[in-house]
Amino acid sequence: MADETVSAQYPPASSSAAAPLGHSVIPIVNKLQDIFAQLGSQSTIELPQVAVVGSQSSGKSSVLEALVGRDFLPRGSDICTRRPLVLQLLQTKRKPDGTEEEYGEFLHLPGKRFYDFSEIRREIQAETEREAGANKGVSDKQIRLKIFSPNVLDITLVDLPGITKVPVGDQPSDIEARIRTMIMSYIRTPSCLILAVTPANSDLANSDALQIAGNADPDGHRTIGIITKLDIMDRGTDAHNLLLGKVIPLRLGYVGVINRSQEDIMLNRSIKDAIVAEEKFFRSRPVYNGLADQCGVPQLAKKLNQILVQHIKAVLPGLKSRISSALVSMAKEHASYGEITESKAGQGALLLNILSKYSEAFSSIVEGKNEEMSTSELSGGARIHYIFQSIFVKSLEEVDPCEDLTDDDIRTAIQNSTGTRSALFAPEVPFEVLVRRQIARLLDPSLQCARFIYDELMKISHRCLVNELQRFPVLRKRMDEVIGNFLREGLEPSETMIGHIIEMEMDYINTSHPNFIGGSKSVEIAKQQLPKVSLPLSRQKDGIEPDKVPTSERSVKSRAILARQANGVVSDQGVRPVADVEKVTLSGNTSGSSWGISSIFGGIDNRTSAKESLTNKSFSEPVHSLEQAFSIIQLREPPSVLRPTENQSDEEAIVIVATKLLLRSYYDIVRKNIEDFVPKAIMHFLVFSFSSRHIM
């Protein structure tokens, strides 16, 4: 009786209008899924499938076993589904004698058939533990299982781990977020149907399955609601409004089922008996009489089969287009690999042909003769020209040779070049020292330019014969090594030549160059640029000009200053009027000396008395008179670092401006030479030298 009921609920393929199409299309989609599963993440084509989502212990596994009609999934009170299980149900025909053959196959065990469904359960558990461990760990790596049976309809389902709240065992603390992310990776694609499983004894508004399905399918166009455990609802309640979609509407509707209880499983109650009991339950509840097509596992199987077939029909045109495009692309790539050559002579000829094509392609890209010329960006030789003119030349033109030279630096260089003498004319030595320093600054950008060209040549090398060399990865790697060595061999003489160019410019400063401004002209321009500045005047006293002050008075003031600097105490009468000073001098006072003529050409007595006074006086003894102060002169020790005085004369200002003009004039001459010779050296030693070589 049970067999007849199941046979009636699962009709053969020929008895359904959608079955012929489903029986032919769904297996093809399953084969594509197996192929893409082996490709892994390389596949970008999304195939139609049905994902089963729900919270832990919501009855997902019981629904899947009811659809198959066999016990084959792991059971337990904790989390059971710890890896995504892709379940492909394939309907087969009965044998002529009426017997049935049911078996399963795993993709990771090709060719091995499992006729005992308890062995399938053990293999699922073993494969899960191999990947996720034995202590409740979770993995996103799929397990793919095919079930062949005449009692199933062609359906492909993905059983995903149940949503859990609290981590157990080896599960990480964010297990809920990880499982939700895993589920979303399946159901967010438009080609995936969502089977949201919710137990009837929980609030539908708080359903985790419907909540996550609503995030991926806000309009409810791809979601099918499954209400499980209808037989354990509270007395006086039913799922009538839930199945009609009055609580949370779904376009594809709801289906109510009754799961086997844990007691049924422990008593080994078969799924066929459970389906018979389920049918009796719905018949005995008048509230479900008008919902016959929405109640029971057989109705769920039919609904899933029909919806999946319709879904495949909807996505089939786009799927065919994507597969065709991918096929054309792969065919072109396959054709670019050429024919397989077995003989040594043929392999040698093929290798020589590839190297010749590579050399031609490299030269054409550098010279701008490439057939596949880009119209969106500069490439090849155009980039090299851009580096020379828009980066190297422009950067040198923006440099000011005097930007890091201050007036004090130039004054210091000029004074150092004169030695112990004062400069009568602007010396040449500081100009040459300063201009060599500026020429040396051109070395680094010149070497950097050579490095830029080296990098561009490497990029050009990588773009040559990409398709032809894809079939020979070892040859591609070896060619990259050889080409890198060739380019480095060309870079070394380029950098050496650039260094020689800079050294030549530094070794000989050609001040006779026709474009050089010259010394006399620079001084003339400097005088024109500087404003007329009068010399600063000293303070005048009583309206008398400093030059007209009597010599004796200026001498006394000088002596007064020296007296203040002497070691000792100077009395208030340290500065005396001129007449008083002269009187002291004429009276032959031997207690001091004066700076007048008499002190240089005076008698012996005065000099002797002064000498004796200095000899007899201690240096630490305070000075009590002006005459004694005149005999002691203290000098300051020079500082460890000397800089020019802050006061700058007009002559120095003219020399500084003239020096800057000379520096700029000669730097422009050298800069133009460098802008011309450095690209030539790079092209000669690096670019053309490499292009003319033969890779053998």
Topology, number of strands: 9
Number of helices: 24
- Cα end-to-end separation: 82 Å
Describe the largest sheet: 9 strands, mixed
Strand content: 5-15%
Mean pLDDT: 76
Class by alpha and beta content: alpha/beta
Lateral strand order in the biggest sheet? 4-3-5-2-6-1-7-8-9
GO molecular function: GTP binding; GTPase activity; microtubule binding
Pfam family, one: Dynamin_N
Domain Dynamin-type G: 44-317
Family: Belongs to the TRAFAC class dynamin-like GTPase superfamily. Dynamin/Fzo/YdjA family.
Question: How would you sum up this structure in a few lines?
Answer:
This protein has 696 residues and is of the alpha/beta class. It is built from 24 helices and nine strands. The chain has a nine-stranded mixed β-sheet, with helices on both faces.
Jot down its keywords.
nine-stranded mixed beta sheet, single chain, disordered N terminus, 9 strands, 24 helices, 696 residues, alpha/beta, motor protein, 52% helix
